[in-house]
């Protein structure tokens, strides 16, 4: 039997994750992007905004209200948080939603309001959405209608930390996460902090002690560990590069236990490589342009401490790639469909 091709609308295709979703879907055998939406840039061809997407399958960027929703099977929400829920809650109920924003990531609407400073317009839906860290949610993703893709930092960090939570093999009182992102993590919108001169030839921390990804990370760690008191120290930094995310987790535990737990968790996972102990540290360029995640474990010279490094591409595993991986799992397909063709771009 021939597989039906799902018709996808990419909401926010004139932004970075939307354009990346369109790019990646071109490799997908069973999903076709047939609608692309934008706001200020609606009215243009997608290839005039993103010339690299020119050629086959060019799309008109239209407003979401002009999409012919009766023809759409799945929507990828690549919109700013807040805008995302406002639009998603107006869509027909038969359209499957894979949301890349933070709008449906919080299982507790009160925690959402605390982190984002607004009331959720559909608190019961955020409570029941599936948190789509693909490798850790495969079963619950099957048949799901609404999936919240994790943030790019939470993706890289939880890929490292979740396998250490159950059984709990690290001390949860001393988790310190030093994280770095390329500037595409901040989106394509014009912001002073993203100007070339503000980003190049330097680096700086931001959101120190306050970043909104901290409660998202803590939510998932506590759920996995069956606890409610895990807190983490998380410090993100902006690096002068377009894409890539690098996290260094400083933990208290046994290096061999940590290595064994990570190897066991990802033994059969196509996108995750746990490097052998003693390997050179992974580089964001080893996963650039792919849905891969590489993890490496090191003993600290301080007795009883372990350092674990994870790298992903924020625009692929950290957003659009994982979104497609999630759709594959929702549909009961091979999770790697359309994504296993990607090969890292180095240097
Ligand atoms: N960048 C990343 O690495 C990651 C991003 N995310 C999340 O994914 C989502 C998209 O991020 P990203 O692609 O970087 O963002 P961008 O700023 O690059 O793109 C935002 C998109 O949303 C559209 N948009 C903005 N405002 C409105 C509105 N009021 N109504 C309708 N459409 C609107 C924009 O249209 P137009 O330009 O035409 O005005 C654009 O297409 C965000 O929620 C982000 O937090 C998650 C993980 C990683
Ligand atoms: C470099 C940079 O600015 N990164 C963004 C995170 C991108 C991401 O994952 O964001 P969402 O949780 O909004 O989806 C930030 O720190 O806010």
Automatic annotation (TrEMBL):
<feature type="domain" description="Semialdehyde dehydrogenase NAD-binding">
    <location>
        <begin position="7"/>
        <end position="144"/>
    </location>
</feature>
<dbReference type="Pfam" id="PF22698">
    <property type="entry name" value="Semialdhyde_dhC_1"/>
</dbReference>
<comment type="pathway">
    <text>Amino-acid biosynthesis; L-arginine biosynthesis; N(2)-acetyl-L-ornithine from L-glutamate: step 3/4.</text>
</comment>
<keyword id="KW-0028">Amino-acid biosynthesis</keyword>
<feature type="active site">
    <location>
        <position position="152"/>
    </location>
</feature>
<dbReference type="Pfam" id="PF01118">
    <property type="entry name" value="Semialdhyde_dh"/>
</dbReference>
<keyword id="KW-0521">NADP</keyword>
<dbReference type="InterPro" id="IPR000534">
    <property type="entry name" value="Semialdehyde_DH_NAD-bd"/>
</dbReference>
<dbReference type="InterPro" id="IPR050085">
    <property type="entry name" value="AGPR"/>
</dbReference>
<keyword id="KW-0055">Arginine biosynthesis</keyword>
<keyword id="KW-0560">Oxidoreductase</keyword>
<comment type="similarity">
    <text>Belongs to the NAGSA dehydrogenase family. Type 1 subfamily.</text>
</comment>
<dbReference type="InterPro" id="IPR000706">
    <property type="entry name" value="AGPR_type-1"/>
</dbReference>
<protein>
    <recommendedName>
        <fullName>N-acetyl-gamma-glutamyl-phosphate reductase</fullName>
        <ecNumber>1.2.1.38</ecNumber>
    </recommendedName>
</protein>
<keyword id="KW-0963">Cytoplasm</keyword>
<comment type="function">
    <text>Catalyzes the NADPH-dependent reduction of N-acetyl-5-glutamyl phosphate to yield N-acetyl-L-glutamate 5-semialdehyde.</text>
</comment>
<dbReference type="InterPro" id="IPR036291">
    <property type="entry name" value="NAD(P)-bd_dom_sf"/>
</dbReference>
<dbReference type="InterPro" id="IPR058924">
    <property type="entry name" value="AGPR_dimerisation_dom"/>
</dbReference>
């Amino acid at each position: 039997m021939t597989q039906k091709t799902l018709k996808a609308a990419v909401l926010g295709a004139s932004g970075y994750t939307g354009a990346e979703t369109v790019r990646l879907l071109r490799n997908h055998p069973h999903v076709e992007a047939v609608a692309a939406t934008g706001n200020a840039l609606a009215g243009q061809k997608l290839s005039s905004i993103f010339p690299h997407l020119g050629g086959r399958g060019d799309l008109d960027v239209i407003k979401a209200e002009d999409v012919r929703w009766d023809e759409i099977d799945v929507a990828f929400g690549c919109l700013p948080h807040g805008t995302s829920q406002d639009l998603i809650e107006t869509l027909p109920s038969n359209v499957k939603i894979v949301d890349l924003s933070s709008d449906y990531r919080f299982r507790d609407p009160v925690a959402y309001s605390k982190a984002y400073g607004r009331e959720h317009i559909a608190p019961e839906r955020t409570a029941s959405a599936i948190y789509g860290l693909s490798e850790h949610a495969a079963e619950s993703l099957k048949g799901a209608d609404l999936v919240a893709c994790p943030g790019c930092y939470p993706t890289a960090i939880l890929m490292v930390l979740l396998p250490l939570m159950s059984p709990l093999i690290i001390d949860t009182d001393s988790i310190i996460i030093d994280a770095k992102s390329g500037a595409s993590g901040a989106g394509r919108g014009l912001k002073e902090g993203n100007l070339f001169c503000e980003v190049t030839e330097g680096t700086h921390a931001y959101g120190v002690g306050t970043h909104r990804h901290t409660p998202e990370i803590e939510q998932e760690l506590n759920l996995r560990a069956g606890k409610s008191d895990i807190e983490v120290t998380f410090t993100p930094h902006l690096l002068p590069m377009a894409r890539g995310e690098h996290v260094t987790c400083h933990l208290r535990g046994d290096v061999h236990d940590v290595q064994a737990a990570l190897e066991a968790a990802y033994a059969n996972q196509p996108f995750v490589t746990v490097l052998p102990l003693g390997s050179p540290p992974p580089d964001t360029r080893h996963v650039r342009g792919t849905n891969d995640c590489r993890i490496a474990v090191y003993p600290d010279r301080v007795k009883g401490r372990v350092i674990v490094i994870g790298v992903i591409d924020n625009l692929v595993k950290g957003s659009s790639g994982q979104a497609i991986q999630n759709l594959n799992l929702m549909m009961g397909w091979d999770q790697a469909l359309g994504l296993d063709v990607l090969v890292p771009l180095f240097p």
